[in-house]
Amino acid sequence: MGKYSPLSDYLRAHDQNEVPMTFAQIERIIGSKLPNSHRYRAWWSNNEFNSVMTKAWLEAGFRSEQVDIERRKLVFRKIAPNGLRANAEANKRPAISRRHPLFGAMKGLITLAPGTDLTAPADPEWGEVAYGDKTWDDFK
Fold it and tell me: Which stretches of the chain are DSSP H helices?
């Protein structure tokens, strides 16, 4: 049983889609103070590699939202098994994209000079070695 297991148990016990909490409530539930890093928004991100506490709320089926560091409060929202929010509005959109997950991942990272032919070999002389006296231009 980990330090943040009581938070997982607390969240699992709720049937609501949203569980608003203060940082003080979380501290009471886990029985200790939150680490100093809780003062940074990144600590409350839903990246499972972020912290042990993040894993606790994710494993309970919730994600953190509406984090207000100044007022020391946030909302845990239940997520559906497929990763969507567990509410009707979010479930209206299609759960599966027809595009590959990497579609557009490189957009804006590469610039090609005008007139560049990406189908031409990088070393045009390779054809002379492979095809005798024929060159790339003979195959166009």
Answer: 5-12, 23-30, 52-59, 88-91, 126-131, 136-139
Q: Which residues contact 48 (CB under 8 A, 6 or more apart)?
A: 54, 55, 58
pTM for this prediction: 0.57
DSSP reduced 3-state for 43:
helix
Which DSSP symbol is given to 84? S
Tokens of 114: 């005008």
Classify residue 65 by its DSSP letter.
E
pLDDT in tens, 113-125: 888 887 877 776 6
pLDDT tens, position by position, 2-17: 888 899 999 999 888 9
Beta-carbon count within 10 A of 8 CB: 21
What phi and psi, each to the nearest 5 degrees, are found at residue 75? -125, 130
